[in-house]
Structure formats: C-alpha cells, structure tokens
Amino acid sequence: xxxxxxxxxxxxxxxxxxxxxxxxxxxxxxxxxxxxxxxxxxxxxxxxxxxxxxxxxxxxxxxxxxxxxxxxxxxxxxxxxxxxxxxxxxxxxxxxxxxxxxxxxxxxxxxxxxxxxxxxxxxxxxxxxxxxxxxxxxxxxxxxxxxxxxxxxxxxxxxxxxxxxxxxxxxxxxxxxxxxxxxxxxxxxxxxxxxxxxxxxxxxxxxxxxxxxxxxxxxxxxxxxxxxxxxxxxxxxxxxxxxxxxxxxxxxxxxxxxxxxxxxxxxxxxxxxxxxxxxxxxxxxxxxxxxxxxxxxxxxxxxxxxxxxxxxxxxxxxxxxxxxxxx
Length: 327
Hints:
- The protein is mostly helical.
- It has one domain: P1 Nuclease.
- The chain is built from twelve helices and four strands.
- The protein has helices at about 15-30, 40-55, 55-65, 70-75, 80, 135-145, 155-170, 200-205, 210-215, 220-235, 245-265, 275-300, and strands at about 90, 95-100, 190, 195.
- The strands form two sheets. A two-stranded antiparallel ribbon has the order 1-2. A two-stranded antiparallel sheet has the order 3-4.
- Helix 6 (about 135-145) runs parallel beside helix 12 and helix 11 packs antiparallel against helix 12 (about 275-300).
C-alpha cells in the first residue's frame, strides 16, 4: 500500500557537488515551464476509464457521492481547463472550482528532472520547489486529502479532480525530464507531415491528430485496449510499493534513454509509421500503468476497509461485478 501521508525528505549533497546542483536548480527555476497538459484529453480520459473499472464497490459509491454519475473521464481534464478560466470553473457539471488564471498550480503537473543528472529516491525531491510544487508531492497530497475523513466534500471533489489528472501527468515521460527544452517543447518535429514539437507529439499519443481533434474522440476503444494490455502483461504489480516515486523515475528514464536519445539521432525530422510503431507501445504501457495506479490510489483513499494492507495488497485479486459507469 502506498504511504499517502506527506514524506519529508532531507538530503544534503556533498559540498563538491553542491555548486553544480545549485546552478542547475537555478537555471530550471528561471526557465519557462512546460504546458500543464500531458497526454491530451484522449489519454487522460482513457486513464480515468481504466481506473474507474478497477474501483471497489465502496470506492465507486464514494466517487458517485462526490461527482454524481458523470464519470471519472468527464472530470479528467478539469485540472488543465481551470488554468485557462478567469473566475469560477465548472468541472463537467459536477462541481465548481476556483479558476487559476495565474497558473500557480501549473507546477503540480510535472517535475523537471534534468536528463544530464542521475536521479534516485533520495534525490528526487531536490527538484520539487518548496517541497510541494511538483507532480510527485501533489499526487501524494491529493490522495491524502481524498482519504481524509475530516476533509470537506468540496475539498475531496477538488482532490479527486487533481488526482485523476496529475496521476496521468506523472506517467508522461516528458513531464518528468528537462533538457533545457521546456520538457521537449523547444524540440521541433514533423510527424506524418504535421508539425509538432516533441512534447506535443507525446501528448498526442504519437498520433497526427492534435488535442482539439482528440478531445472529440471516444476514449472507450483506447481504454478497452489498455485493459487488455493490463490483463496480458499482468500489470497489477504496478500498483505496489511506493509507485508514486517509481512513476517519476520510470518516466524520466524513458525520456532520457528512449525519447531524447532517439531525437538526438533523427532530430525529429520526417517521423512517421516507423516512429509510431517504435514508440506507441511505450505510450500505451504508460497509460495502462497510470490507470492501474490511479485506481489503487482512489481505492486506498475511499475504501480503506476493503483494501489489504502492505505487500499482501493486490488490486488484481479483487473481482468486481458492477458494470462500467458510476451507477
């Protein structure tokens, strides 16, 4: 079971590495930040649908009490949309949330881990400004709020909104890597004749359609494909251990060794079917893991009584008879 209470990290780098690390951190602080959206609306909706089907009956009822029958997929992009609203933003007709036009919560969607530096559990939080303004800490905090019996209904609604979205964000590799390129936004590509940057190409699931076109697509076929991938790959174990930290380290490794390494070879020029065949399986695996882990987080927060504790917990061992939808 993932520990949801806030973890206080204390790390003191050796003095001979302190100045280079400080310079690195300062350069990241002044750099422009990447856009909050990861995977685009289609990917986020699919992750939410995967998680929704894996909720325990008790957690499913608790989610229904919070957002009604709109479904997790309908609220999965509200954490992005509220950044562009001016006042109060209505999330999928389920509840209102204060807009964030100054984008103070935008850093909650990513963590800027330089690809030139090795990272580990002990150093990861060195790159989380103020100890809280990064996706790793916010996944933990939002899950904690969702499971807090003293939290108000409104606080739980907002926590669920963030948790559904930023859990997906953490599994987008370029939301966990920095190469002085604003998370890949400065690296230009051409994919199947369509101009994109590297970040948007991965947001768009290695598809030519942009986020506006993908927002109109039915996410159910992709979600069904991810469920089959989970079953075939036995990905239930992805929801064990401290997977909140694991997700960021996994994403960073993929960005460094696969995405940026390939870009250094082809410079993003004339990408097409071979690139899609090479990279899209990684995209789908990240989405599938995000769905599994999101379900575990929600189940742990809203159904502590039915979830096993410690290493004996296995989300795949629970069978659910309820059909899809929050009914």
